[in-house]
Amino acid sequence: MTPRTVSPALAFAIAALGIGLFSMMDAVMKSLVLAIGVYNALLWRQMISVGLGAVAWKMGNSGRASGRALKLHLARGLVTTAMAVLFFWGLARVPMAQAISLTYIAPILALLLAAVTLGERVGWKTFVASIAALSGVLVVMIGQGREVPGPETFHGTLAILGSAVLYAVNLVIARLQSQAARPGEIAFFQALVITATLALAAPWLAVVPEAAQWPKLILAAGLATASLWLLGWAYAHGDTGFLATTEYTSFVNAAGLGFLVFGERVSAFTLAGAAIIVVACLYAARRRDIAQTSIEATV
C-alpha cells in the first residue's frame, strides 16, 4: 500500500490525538482492572473491540488482507497481548504518571533492538543515551520507593518495565504493519488476535462482569479502537522518528487523568526521571528516522 502525501503537521496532530484517546483508555482500564481484574478487563474489552474493528475495517474499504499483512497482524497481536497484560497489571499498582514515564524507555530499546536483529550499527551517542535513560528509570523507582514502599509497588514497576520491552518490539512491527494494511484492517485483526489469545484461558479465568461495568468496557473498547485507527493512519503517512515524539504527550495526559480520576499526585522524582528519559530518547533518535534506517530495510 502506497501512502498518500500529507503535511507532517497533520500527521503529528492525528498521532497526538490518538495518544490522547489512548491515555483516556488507560484511565478507564485502570478502573476496570481494580474492579474485575486484568484478565477479565482485557478479555471483555477486546471482544467488544473485535466488533468495532470489523466496522472500521468495512468502512475503510480495505479489501482482503494479504498474506504478509496477516503475518504482521499475528505477530503484533501476540506481542501486544503480553504487553497489555503486563502493563495493566502494573498500572493497577503504581500511579499512572509513573507508569507512563517508565514506558518511555521503549524508543531507546527499539534502537537497540534494531541493532541486534537487523545488524544496525549503534554509535556511542545511542549507548550514552541508553545509560541516561536507565538512570531516569532509577530516579523514578527511587522516588516511588520513598513515597509508596512495598512489594506490590515494586512488582508493578517490574511489570511496567517488562511491558516497555515488548512495546519496543511493537514499535518495530507497527511501522511495517502500517505499510502493509489500512488502519481499519489493523484495528480489526489486532483485536481479533488479542481476543483469541486471551480466550485460551477463558474456561478457567473468565467471569461475566456485572452490569455496572459494561459501559466502561464499551467506552474502553471504543477509545482503544479509535486510537489504534488514528495512530495507524498517522504512521502510514509520516516518519516514525518524527511521530514517535507524540508518545511523550501521554505523560501530561496521564498526570492529569491520574489526579482527576484517582487523586494521584506527580512527585518531583517522577518529573525528573521522566525528563531524563525523554531527553535521552530524543538525543538518541535526533540524527535518524528509526523506520527509514532500520525497519524498512527488512521489507
Q: How would you characterize the overall build of this protein?
A:
The protein is an all-alpha fold and 299 residues long. The protein contains 14 helices and no strands. The protein has helices at residues 8-36, 38-59, 67-91, 96-103, 106-118, 124-147, 151-180, 183-199, 202-205, 214-237, 240-243, 249-262, 268-285, 290-295. Helix 3 runs antiparallel to helix 7 (151-180). The relative contact order is 0.22.
Briefly summarize what is shown.
With 299 residues, this protein is an all-alpha fold. Helices cover 80% and strands 0% of the residues.
Kindly list the characteristics that best describe this protein.
single chain, 299 residues, mainly alpha, globular, disordered C terminus
How is the secondary structure organized here?
Layout: H1 8-36, H2 38-59, H3 67-91, H4 96-103, H5 106-118, H6 124-147, H7 151-180, H8 183-199, H9 202-205, H10 214-237, H11 240-243, H12 249-262, H13 268-285, H14 290-295
Shape: globular
Average of per-residue pLDDT values: 81
Which segments are poorly predicted (pLDDT under 50) over 5 or more consecutive residues? Answer: 287-299
Count every beta strand, where a strand is a DSSP E run of 2 or more residues. 0
* Rg calculated over all Cα atoms: 18 Å
Note the main sheet.
none
Q: How many H/I helices?
A: 14
The separation of the N and C termini measures 12 Å
One letter per element, helices H and strands E, the order comes to HHHHHHHHHHHHHH
Structural class label: mainly alpha
Give the strand content. Answer: under 5%
Helix-residue proportion: over 70%
